[in-house]
């Protein structure tokens, strides 16, 4: 029985370690922490850039936070519920948190997502 499924995106950080044989490297890495990888597959480069990774980059470019409606417009989500589902996965993964942005009118606020401090924000 599969207990959890994770998607891992990797890139090289230097010339010493290459992506050659990455499946085996990932299998050994998982084994080092007492787990067994049931499946390791490389995906096409077009699929590798996930919506979540693009969202994190884009929100960083916006100063580290963005409203649900801004994200919906920028990424073309059909509904705000679709945006909330994707952002909730980021919250659950520790990538950020929900915040309420206060507007000029008293009592009015906008739901927004704010990146966790561990993500470098893009300098403008």
Automatic annotation (TrEMBL):
Name under which the protein is recorded: Uncharacterized protein
Native source species: Gimesia algae
């Amino acid at each position: 029985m599969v207990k959890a499924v994770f998607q891992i995106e990797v890139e090289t950080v230097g010339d010493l370690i290459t992506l050659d044989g990455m499946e085996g490297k990932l299998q050994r890495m998982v084994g080092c922490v007492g787990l067994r990888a049931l499946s390791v597959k490389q995906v096409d480069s077009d699929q590798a850039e996930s919506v979540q990774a693009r969202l994190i980059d884009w929100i960083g470019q916006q100063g580290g936070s963005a409203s649900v409606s801004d994200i919906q417009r920028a990424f073309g989500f059909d509904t705000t519920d679709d945006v909330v589902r994707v952002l909730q996965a980021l919250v659950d993964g520790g990538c950020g948190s929900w915040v309420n942005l206060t507007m000029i009118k008293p009592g009015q606020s906008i739901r927004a997502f704010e990146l966790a401090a561990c993500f470098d924000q893009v300098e403008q």
